[in-house]
Amino acid sequence: MKIRILGAGPAGLYFAALMKQHNPAHDIVIYERNPRDATWGFGVVFSDRALEFLRADDEALYQYLTPHLENWPEITVSRNDVKVPIAGNGFSSIGRLELLTLLYQYVEKLGVKIQFDTEITDLKAVGEADLVVAANGAFSWVRNENEAQFGTQTDWRPNKFIWYGTTKAFNSLTLTFRETDLGVFCAHHYRYKPDMSTFLVEVTDETWRRAGFEHMSPEDTMHYCEQAFAHELEGHPIISNNSHWRNFPAIWNERWYNGNVVLLGDALRTAHFSIGSGTRLAMEDAVALFKAFQATGDDVQAALPKFQELRWPPVRKIWDAANISIRWYEEMDQRVPELAPVELAYNYMTRTGRVNHAELRRRDPALAQAYEALHPELQ
Fold it and tell me: TM spans, by residue (predicted)?
């Protein structure tokens, strides 16, 4: 097969690797608009469960990546200065650029060609191909130019977030909620290198406007966030990588392919960063698409419907949960002041309905007991 892939992110890279391993005769080229050493953001995370899925599908890649991961056995929910550790929630992290570099090397050793600094804006530019994979991110032009065919729905959510890094190395994936006179400031932060952490700041639109962020320079914005989270940062600076305020687009497509063109990763659907790793979802998309080709003998017209059939149920379930999680954060100005730290941690863990009281008791008996002490009706 002649396969052309737009976007050298985890979805496109991993699909290329799986197809090339299965049949080295496949002619696979990946087009990436950015230079080899460019990326936005800082670290990405995988839950322990996500890594077990990867290990089940690809032991070799699992063994290749794991020496480069930072690991911790719990998450932490912090309300002002009170921290509530939550057991039974192991995660691993890695720098986004480091992950991509490792995947570049992995696929190139298999014989896949990556063309960096190559901006493709017209499908005709890829030439004749049996399969075109649009793995070119949440703002995919392939999807945007064919929204009617894909049945695209885009819901821009009101909260603002900005993806920073910091030299402060945190010991776990932590959600810090700081109450201020202007509203609640939330930081999602975790270590991805021994001396670096992701530090993503999120606020409601109302808090963002009250703080005056719309009129601040990038430097003033960084300084403001450093002051808001001075207790957590302990003198460490916030670091920008073309960081700017964003709104999250909740994207869904009713039809995942159009002719021989298929959407993958964030081009296919976005899931809010609070629900888990978009990287994990992208790689699972790649596995499902690969398995669809395995099942159909590389028949493109049969494989693409098969891919949607296989992947739709788990993706829709995660996407629905992610949208519930988005709305939980959109209510944090009202929610956080009303809840004691233990109640906030419990409320956070059970917010989507995927974790009930029995499951939380299994994961972390101490947190369940602390919550039951506040709510005797559950005992």
Answer: none
Confidence category of residue 190, pLDDT binned at 50, 70, 90: very high
**Between the CA of residue 284 and those of 137, 188, 275, 306, 312, what are the distances in Å?**
15, 24, 15, 15, 12
362 and 269, same domain (yes or no)? no
- How many independent structural domains does the chain possess? 2
Summarize pLDDT for 268-296 with one digit per residue, the tens. Answer: 999 999 987 788 899 999 999 999 999 99
Asked if residue 104 belongs to a domain, the reply is yes
Same domain, 359 and 325: no
Any bridge partners for residue 87, and if so which? 74
Q: Assess if residue 10 is contained within a domain.
A: yes
- Mean pLDDT taken over the chain: 95
- Structural domain including 17 reads 2-39+96-156+249-329
Rounded Cα distance between 166 and 49, Å, is 27
Same domain, 361 and 280: no
Is the entire prediction scored with pTM above 0.90? Answer: yes
Burial of 93 (0-12, 13-18, 19+ CB in 10 A): buried
Mean pLDDT on 181-198: 96
Same-domain pairing of 8 and 104 = yes
Buried b (16+ CB within 10 A) or exposed e, 244-256: ebeebebbbbeeb
Q: What distance in Å separates the CA atoms of residue 364 and residue 371, rounded to the nearest whole number? A: 11
- Is residue 149 situated within a structural domain? yes
Q: What pLDDT was estimated at residue 123?
A: 94
Given a cut of 70, whether residue 228 has pLDDT beyond it is: yes
Reading phi first (left if > 0) and then psi (alpha if -120 to 50, else beta), residue 77 is in beta
- For residue 31, pLDDT over 70 is answered with yes
- Please report the pLDDT score of residue 56 as a whole number: 87
Phi, then psi, of 268 in degrees rounded to 5: -80, -45
Same domain, 346 and 323: no
Q: Helices marked H in the chain — which ranges?
A: 10-22, 48-57, 59-65, 96-109, 141-144, 147-150, 205-211, 218-228, 230-233, 278-296, 300-330, 332-338, 341-349, 357-363, 365-374
Which tokens go with 96? 């986004």
